[in-house]
Structure formats: structure tokens, C-alpha cells
Amino acid sequence: MSFYVATIQFDWYRRKKADRLYNKNAKILFLGLDNAGKTTLLGVLKDGRLSQNRPTFHPKMPVNISQTYDLGGHETARRLWKDYYTSVDAIVFMVDSSAPQRFEESKRELDALLSSDELSNVPFLILGNKIDIAGTSEEKFRASMGLTQTTGKDKVPLNPGVRPIEVFMCSVVRRFGYGDGFRWLSNYIN
Ligand SMILES: Nc1nc2c(ncn2[C@@H]2O[C@H](COP(=O)(O)OP(=O)(O)OP(=O)(O)O)[C@@H](O)[C@H]2O)c(=O)[nH]1
Hints:
It is a single chain. This protein is α/β, with parallel strands linked by helices. It has six helices and six strands. It has a single domain (3-186), classed as Rossmann fold (3-Layer(aba) Sandwich). 26% of the residues lie in helices and 28% in strands. The structure holds guanosine-5'-triphosphate (GTP).
């Protein structure tokens, strides 16, 4: 088991109620098993190709990738990336949805993150990547990952202390699905 952690900081614009656009820096941890597609996604984000037709969400170009770490599964490494927990705005957890044989391993890691006190209020965007390969259904993916109870894909108002968490199926190589995920995430970053 190996984890890849990238801390990126990127700017986006959000439309507020008053219709004023403003700029937001967000520090996001990209986590997930090896081969999930994190590096590929970061590359796409860097290209600024997140979502061409989304007036409410334009990542500035280029994305500023401040730190990238490739960490093994060692306890020491885990302690290291735990240092980021305190300053992180959101977590993007990627899963290769075409590899069901690794769902269990992935779920174990996700569950550990979700039960971490430091992350109890941090929004989680779960990306089921590579749907272009096997076309795994969202329902099946959610069931395998234990993610049947989630926030909802619209902008759902949450009570304080309730963590936003939602699943989006995507294909990074086909440029599909993750834009909606980030748009959803932007609702929960202050
Ligand atoms: N078919 C398909 N392949 C993808 C997709 N996204 C990524 N890949 C491929 O999956 C492989 C792994 O992608 P990476 O981005 O290196 O995965 P990673 O999570 O960074 O993996 P590690 O660096 O090993 O932790 C590469 O060959 C990518 O081209 C996708 O949406 N569809």
C-alpha cells in the first residue's frame, strides 16, 4: 500500500449571492492509493482545463502546486502528512473505480482518514476515477466504499460540525466528472 500526497494551492472564483466574484486560495490534499490517477488529475488542473463551461468555477492558470510528496505506507510517513491536517481546506480522495479488487484496501484508508479527529470538519470529495474503463456504476462504487450516506450533490446547508462528503464518478483522461466534484467542494470552502 502506498499513498501519494500532493498539497496544492489554487485560486478560484466563486459567485457570491451579491454576484461579486472573489478569489479563493485553497489548500487541498490529494490522497488515494497508487495508480488512482492523482498525478494525472494534478496535471490536468495545472493545465487549467478543469471545466471550460462553468462560469461559477474557474481555476486560475496555472495552478500553483506548492508541494508534492510521494509517501510510502510507513507510520513515520503518515505522521508526516498528518502535519498537514491542521491547515488543509479539503481532501480529495481518489479511487480507481476500475479496480474493484482494491476497493477494500482503499476503503480501509478512507475510513482511517474519516475517523481522524483532526479532519472531523474537513470536506471530503471522493472521486471514483477511470469510469471510461469499466463503467462502474456509482451505486456499486458507493456500496463497496461504504459511502451510501453522503451530503448530496447540490449545495446542501449543513449544521455546524457536520462534515461535507460526496462521491463523484469521473474520468480524468476523458475530462469528465471531476469538475462537478470541485464545484460541489467549493460550496464548502470558506
Ligand atoms: N483509463 C484511464 N486511465 C487513467 C485515468 N486517470 C489516470 N489514468 C491512468 O492511470 C495510471 C495511474 O495514474 P497516476 O495519475 O499516475 O496515478 P497516481 O494516483 O498519481 O499514482 P501513484 O503516483 O502511483 O500514486 C496512469 O497510467 C494514468 O494515465 C482515467 O480517467 N482513465
